[in-house]
Amino acid sequence: MGLTRVPGLLFGGDYNPEQWPEQVWAEDVRLMAEAGVNLATVAVFSWSRLEPREGEYDFAWLDRVIDLLHEHGVAVDLATATATPPPWLVREHPSVMPVDANGTRLEFGSRQGYCPSSPIFRAHTVQLARAMAERYKDHPALAMWHISNEYADHTVECFCEESAADFRKFLEKRYGGIDGLNAAWGTSCWGQHYTSFDQVEPPRKAPGPVNPSQLVDWRRFCSDALLACFNAEKAVLREVTPDVPVTTNFMSILHSLDYWAWAEAEDVVSDDAYPDPADPSSHVAIALSYDLMRSLRQRPWLLLESAPSAVSWRDVNAPKPPGMMRLHSLQALAHGSDGVMFFQWRQAKYGPEKFHSAMLPHGGVSTRGWQETLQLGASLKDLAEIAGTTTRAEVALVLDWDSWWGLEAPESMPSQRLKLKELLLSWYRPLHARGIAVDLTPPGRDLSGYKLVIAPNLYMCTPEQVKSLEAAQKLVVGPFSGVVDAADQVHDGGAPGPLRDLLGITVDEPWPLPDGAEQRTSMGTARTWAEWIRVTDAEVLARYEGGDLDGRPAVTRRGHVTYLSCLLDDLTPFLDGLTPVADVPEGVEATRRQNYLFLLNHTAEPARVTLREPGFDLLTQTDRQGEIELAPRDAVVLRIEGDQ
Ligand code: GAL
Question: Fewer CB within 10 Å: C terminus or N terminus of the chain?
Answer without folding.
Answer: N
